[in-house]
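Posting for a labmate who doesn't have an account.
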Amino acid sequence: MDTLNGVSLRTVTWGKPETHTRTPIVLVHGLASNAMLWEGAALALCALGHLVTAVDLRGHGLSEKPTSGYDMQTVTQDLAGLLREINKDGFSQPVVCGQSWGGNVVLELAHTHPELVSGVVCVDGGFLELQNHYPEWDACAVALRPPTIAGTRITDFKNYLKRAHPDWPETGINGAMSCMEHLPDGTLRPWLNLERHMMVLRGLWEHHPTHIYSQITVPVMFVPAEGPSGLFSETKRSAIEHAMQLVPKVKVEWFSPADHDLHAQYPERFAQVVHAAITDGFF
């Protein structure tokens, strides 16, 4: 645990600085997710020579769960503080990958703290501008309110995940299960409770990545997922094209067809894409 910005964050690290000499990588999960959903990708990146760490952001997983501070600026400051703290452990100017909401977080990090990173990877995120879809917060809150999962039996939920994602490796299924607290009575509940979930969602709704694209001075790679049931799939192509016009140093690697959690679905492929961008000199 690292106590930064007044909050204690849990990290999970793969590899050792003395044996992994390639550009280090930091992994940032999406809304209501957790560090372990990155396990498959982290193992693959580690095998390619990278020192890798994943973080549970505030309110999520095994990190501290304060009652406030879920706006984009505070969460980004949490991440910046973490990067400063782990710099001495071999994570100097890492490539920072964030998925979904985490993609917007790492984009904000690139804007406000470019000195801390070699570049950022936005995994089916970084382009999310919810006010384009829901101009009023109340409508967004109703449309994107999470389903009630608390009280579901652990075995039933795991079976549901396997049916919903038949092509996910075991690391993906187990990582998704780690988004939940497993209770002694055999049921589970999300680590991120509803009140905090909605505060994070409000922070995302208030974020405007298009306002900062042109000011970002480090490389940005977007890795969007294309699929029939993807998040805002009907507008994603135009959003990515807009980002490509504005971000000074940018590249895009589409995963199609793919789930929103493409890093959990295709961990080795995702690792190869990031590794190639590093070794080819994009970052």
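Reply:
Got it, the structure tokens are right above this. The chain has one domain: 2-279.
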